[in-house]
Amino acid sequence: xxxxxxxxxxxxxxxxxxxxxxxxxxxxxxxxxxxxxxxxxxxxxxxxxxxxxxxxxxxxxxxxxxxxxxxxxxxxxxxxxxxxxxxxxxxxxxxxxxxxxxxxxxxxxxxxxxxxxxxxxxxxxxxxxxxxxxxxxxxxxxxxxxxxxxxxxxxxxxxxxxxxxxxxxxxxxxxxxxxxxxxxxxxxxxxxxxxxxxxxxxxxxxxxxxxxxxxxxxxxxxxxxxxxxxxxxxxxxxxxxxxxxxxxxxxxxxxxxxxxxxxxxxxxxxxxxxxxxxxxxxxxxxxxxxxxxxxxxxxxxxxxxxxxxxxxxxxxxxxxxxxxxxxxxxxxxxxxxxxxxxxxxxxxxxxxxxxxxxxxxxxxxxxxxxxxxxxxxxxxxxxxxxxxxxxxxxxxxxxxxxxxxxxxxxxxxxxxxxxxxxxxxxxxxxxxxxxxxxxxxxxxxxxxxxxxxxxxxxxxxxxxxxxxxxxxxxxxxxxxxxxxxxxxxxxxxxxxxxxxxxxxxxxxxxxxxxxxxxxxxxxxxxxxxxxxxxxxxxxxxxxxx
Length: 545
Description:
Blueprint: E1 2-9, E2 26-30, E3 35-44, E4 50-58, E5 65-75, E6 93-101, E7 105-109, E8 114-120, E9 130-140, E10 145-156, E11 166-169, H1 173-180, H2 189-202, E12 207-210, E13 232-236, E14 239-243, H3 245-256, E15 261-264, E16 279-283, E17 286-291, H4 300-319, E18 325-327, H5 338-352, E19 358-361, H6 365-368, E20 374-378, E21 393-395, H7 414-418, H8 420-426, E22 431-434, E23 469-472, E24 475-478, H9 480-502, H10 504-512, H11 527-544
Parallel strand pairs: 2-10, 11-22, 12-15, 13-16, 15-18, 19-20, 20-21, 21-22
Antiparallel strand pairs: 1-3, 3-8, 4-7, 4-9, 5-6, 5-8, 9-10, 13-14, 16-17, 23-24
């Protein structure tokens, strides 16, 4: 038996029948940065199809090292008809994506490449600067063979600043409940949910969708999703009262898990703000739905409810020193919804006064009319806002995955995923939003699917569109896309750090060494380009700290 290994970056893609050439075993990162690389492996010259291999990790920083194994999932819909060249493949097949927990022993296959995913400083603690060896010993007991992989970790004596970019990927509580067999906000729910929050924070997320009421998202007209409502509502003799106990627990749990910002669930229905979200209440002793699709968003009953609720919420947030909550009105309104959106915004403004409203949209008119203070604009339309908005956010959808635009579909190259952090820095975007952290339903929430068996939602989506993590034991298993996305967020912070040291023009000049005209359509051709860009940034940080 011969055990073959290759050291790779986190941006390389390993297929069973092909593996990139090995990279130099030297990696550089900052003291509080999460850093990942891969060790690809296979066996040759062995009579059996598979063998057991044991792993040992030796390093002065071994306590900060986590090793997982990269698994593959079957993707039937890898791309849209309109696509470009920045995909690892475009054909249906098995694609590497889930990062599965690794026990001490794992299987190595004959003439079949797999990879270990090695993360240093997964908890983003402050390691000591210096150069450290990291040794991974792969031993096949039955063949009495050991393969030693050694890399050098160079930790720069600098710290990423507190993340300036606000990032949210919508976490769907009902999907967690369905996947793990728990009830919303039950005793069994909270430790599982905390694990999802920690995973989100580890991938660069610092804001969480807060379901004060069941979010009116991806729901067919007249339909409803599982009740996931944090705020208790009582209507007794025509007067509303509110219980914020669960909301308080939600906020405290999120803060403990590394989340800083909160986005209130949408106060009106998706695609137009024409109806009220689902609201459950105890009315004269009976627990029932009091608002939903049958409720006119501009009607007096719902306005009366909002006046009572938002006034009480304001008091609660002030009493608990929560000043990082932002509000949604309606998701993805189009120009034909300008008037209904304007009426909803006027209602909120009348009750709360100046408030931080942000929504995903494409039309500049919403910002121009002062309806949205923080427009979250699709990358396919964002050029209409550049230079005309001081509080710009970005988001993308699967259909934007062409013309070099960043995306994180399973079929996209990892550089295409990670480059987003650089684009958000270049255009001074304040935040990023995506609708799918763990949406494991079909279109319009039409039933649960197993993302390990159908990562494209039974062909409703392109593979990976709707989620970044997989349900695991007591929490999520990360995808490599989630880790790479988090690396892009860290790149954004590193660029902010370097900008504070040498000025914006010099940082832009570094990017200009690699891209003549850097835009939201700029995508690295190979991992080498993006790795070299980050190495240049690290070099300048080390020189100027």
